[in-house]
Amino acid sequence: MTLQRNLGHKILHQGDGLRSIISSGSSTFDVHDGQENISSSHDVLMAWHDFESSFFAGALLCPRKPFRSYLIKKEYDMLSAAKDLELSPAHVMRRVTAVSNYIHWHYFEAHQPGYLSAIYRGNGIPLPFGNMSMASNPCPNWAVFSLLNQSYVQNPQSQISILKDGEQTHLYCCYSIRRKDLAGNLKLYSLGIDLLPALNNQGIDSSKTH
User: Fold this and answer.
1) CA distance 206 to 208
2) 92 lies in a domain?
3) 81-116: per-residue pLDDT in tens?
4) Residue 190: which CATH number?
5) Contact by Cβ (8 Å): 98, 64
6) Residue 98 is assigned to a structural domain of this protein
7) Which of 25, 50, 105, 108 has its CA 20 to 30 A from that of 92?
8) Structural domain that includes position 158
9) Which of the 8 DSSP states describes residue 27?
10) What are the E-state strand segments in 82-167?
11) What are the angstrom distances between the C-alpha of 83 and each of 78, 80, 174?
């Protein structure tokens, strides 16, 4: 996956944002206070380049039609698919949102104590805060953060959630995996769908389920 992601950096961004595996952030040196805003903007740009390059790598490793057929055959078993393909569950789960015929997906990556490091909201799922910068004070009842901070979690976890957004009621189900990253920090990967459009597609009036 690293080779494909690096190739994405070269093809999409002429290598801009490609960094050594032994470095992190925008610089290997201390950043002075006067450069803090510049550094933050640069880090946002580099994070976007990383995302695009990672998406490129996913498309290269998991082409849309073959991967979609494979997922159907595996009944969307993310852990089994990741093991078979020798990819991380995160890469498999992210790729699902791009290849599925059902568009109402969401995907989150979170790490302790309650930071969101990746957000995809194809179904428009409301967040319990205004933006990612406020996620450092997480909503303890939100499924992503409650699973993240439990003392023990048996993978995978499946949940159904009912969320209120003003006068609207939403019904979501999600599939979550918690594991340690290479630095030993706990991370949660959560992939979910909005169930109401699926109910409507089956001829069930979702407005009567509220």
Assistant:
1) 5
2) no
3) 999 998 888 889 989 988 988 888 888 888 877 777
4) 3.30.450
5) yes
6) no
7) 25
8) 103-209
9) -
10) 105-111, 115-121, 157-165
11) 9, 5, 20
For the CA atoms of 138, 183, 7, 83, what is the dihedral angle to 10 degrees?
Answer: -90
Percent helix, percent strand, percent coil in the chain, to nearest 5: 45, 20, 35
Query: What are the residues facing 169 on neighbouring strands?
Result: 164
Position 18 pLDDT exceeds 70: no
Written as six digits, the tokens of 190 are 């959560």
61 touches 92 (CB < 8 A): no
In a domain, 29, yes or no: no
Contact 90, 78 (CB under 8 A): no
Q: What is the spatial distance between Cα 27 and Cα 42, in angstroms, rounded to a whole number?
A: 10
Question: pTM score, two decimals?
Answer: 0.69
164 part of a folded domain = yes
The structural domain count of the chain equals 1
